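Entry 14: structure prediction run for Transporter. Input pasted below.
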Amino acid sequence: MTRRVIQLIVICSVLLVAVAAQAAGFGIYEYSARANALGNSVMAGKADPSSIAINPAQLTELEGTQFALGVSGIYPSATVKIDSPAEDAGSYDGESSLWTIPHFYATHALTDDVYVGVGVFSRFGLGTKFDSDWPGASDVHDVRIRSVSINPLIGYKVTKNFSVAIGPEIMWFDFMLKKKTGHPMIPGYLDTKMSGDSWGAGVSVGARYQITEWLSAGASYRSQVTQSVKGDINMDAGSNRIKDTSASGKITLPEQVGFGINVKPTDKLSVEVGATWIGWSSYSELKVEFEGGPFVKKSDYKDTWRYNAGAEYALTENWDVRASYVYDNSPLNGDSLSYMVPANDRHLFGFGAGWHNESWSVDASYNYLLMKERSATVHVTKSNGMPYAQKGEFKDGDAHIFGLTVGYRF
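Run finished. Output tokens:
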């Protein structure tokens, strides 16, 4: 029974962080330097190869054969302030690290009406790391989450002004979690590590309509992606090592719908506003299978909206400048949270510039992410397994994001 209970605690903690990570804590929207600078306001306006990650139908706006390759660097930081109990009180900084998110796109016009392409990018990841002996270590002290989406597409111009595109999204998901686990039958904490990965699949669909010469609209849909995660669990407390074991759980990432309207007030200026709805309320439970039978945990997430506005101005025939603003809602309800995801609503400010000629393009971007502070109650355990609550705040959460993309077309 002791081993089964410990397994249950660890497995549920790890799989829940995978869900919470995508839920605005570590959602990744950095698809290219140009998209970063525009706050992903590329749903309906001028297209480049990375636009297919936001709206697949933008594929039909790309002539000839085009490639884009680049990377985004994300440098996040956050502070957890514990107010009570008194013995745990203090401010604790998560370790700051530079996370690199690569991207690649290729597109080709088969005919005047039929287009194909593929995008390779990430939709969630990053991590959180604290000292292994900090007061919240029984919740988490180190977690890493990674994903890669491969999204082949086919697009079709239904008319001169209206186009659609569709394709599967094949997603690889990987995680690692380290925490301290307390139990009354074992003296001291167990050092616990769980890691695992899985493959899941969904579908992406997009549409684009050129309403007038200066006005266009776009919409996109990404289906749910179900990940059947299999992981290995390692637990030990010096001489009290528990036999390594394995477990599996199913996580269904939610569907999302995006909209955008692009306006060109002048030949040089383009402005786009948009929104993306993410259906987190559809995630209702986490089911874990392991030795001893299944376990089901209910969840309480709310649907969210992500609002974006971006502008691009052509300084010269070869140079463009860009700026944007994004407001990103958190789906987490209440203040009963986890240190795994010290998240809340976020503001994102973007800037960038790009150079291009007939064959080559180089784009660079900088974004500053600012997270709103929030109160938090986190449930942790003592070394004897006795649960208690830590009350405090998530504060000083921000991130610096840099992007660089090189493109080639012929």
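Notes: The chain has one domain: 2-409. Will compare against the previous run tomorrow.
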